[in-house]
Design brief:
alpha+beta; 37% helix; 10 strands; six-stranded mixed beta sheet; four-stranded antiparallel beta sheet; 282 residues
Length: 282
């Protein structure tokens, strides 16, 4: 039997300690769903809170594909994915952990002043702080800070240093959204209030629905250059539908959700949307 590729060796080691793992391809994103599971046609997996179990043997459903089963990890379908993988991801919530993803030096400085010390793992631009315990995942809880625990994945970058601490309330509080009647709606925050000052030029709601569905499909089908694909897709949607006021919160959320499913953070989505508006002079 030939030697395992390095990502698979790492994955098997982690899985043996009870950490659910999955392969990542270029761009730090999971492998896309197979054609049978595209657009969740299979009904999803039980731990994705969607109807019906998925029995696909492939590396589908992003974080929900993470497993500790060595028989699955070395199965033919998964082995093919590992040969193309560039790194390993894990499901923190499935391992009973929470990762505070500090994206830059400013976020790291904030954490050192605010959060209890715990195990830290260096990243490209910042650090992962890992706590023992699970919570709701949420991106952009403050500038440069994402929370990855349940229903999320984090890239494995090594064991890190320091003693792992229990998940503190100050971290849990980061993911709690306090209601505020003065808070702008997503449309207002993204500059979509007001409309174009006249009747919508689109003859039927079907036209807009088809456009949003095509945009979701384009993002979902992207194999590489995810950042560029998301930006171009947002640009196309805004160019066609952004000036008449017909886009709703639901439409915008659908586009952001498709982008986040490909590994984009909420902050990256908002930046791409803002850049597209700027390009169009909106």
């Amino acid at each position: 039997m030939s030697a395992h590729p390095e990502p698979l060796r790492t994955a098997l080691t982690l899985a043996a300690t009870g950490v659910p793992v999955l392969p990542l391809r270029h761009g730090k994103v999971p492998f896309g769903n197979c054609h049978r599971c595209a657009n969740n046609a299979c009904g999803g997996r039980p731990n994705m809170k969607s109807a019906g179990p998925c029995r696909c043997p492939g590396v589908c459903h992003a974080w929900a594909a993470a497993t500790t089963d060595p028989a699955v990890l070395v199965s033919p379908v998964w082995t093919a994915a590992w040969k193309r993988a560039v790194s390993v991801a894990y499901h923190p919530g499935g391992a009973g952990l929470t990762v505070v993803d500090l994206d830059d030096t400013e976020a790291v400085a904030w954490a050192r002043e605010t959060l209890p010390a715990t195990r830290a793992v260096p990243t490209t631009r910042g650090e992962h702080w890992i706590y023992r315990g699970t919570m709701t995942s949420r991106n952009a809880v403050r500038p440069g800070v994402d929370i990855k625990s349940t229903m999320a994945y984090a890239r494995y970058l090594g064991p890190g240093t320091g003693t792992m601490a229990d998940l503190p309330d100050v971290v849990r509080a980061l993911a709690v959204k306090a209601p505020s009647p003065a808070r702008p709606t997503p449309r207002a925050a993204l500059g979509l209030t007001g409309g174009g000052g006249g009747a919508c030029p689109h003859r039927t709601p079907t036209y807009l629905e088809r456009g949003i569905a095509m945009a979701e499909q384009q993002i979902t089908a992207a194999r590489a250059g995810i950042h560029a694909t998301v930006y171009r897709t947002f640009l196309a949607v805004l160019s066609r539908h952004g000036r008449c006021g017909c886009l709703t919160d639901t439409h915008i959320t659908r586009l952001f959700t498709a982008a986040q499913a490909k590994g984009e953070t909420l902050r990256h989505c908002a930046d791409a949307w803002t850049n597209a508006r700027t390009t169009l002079g909106m």
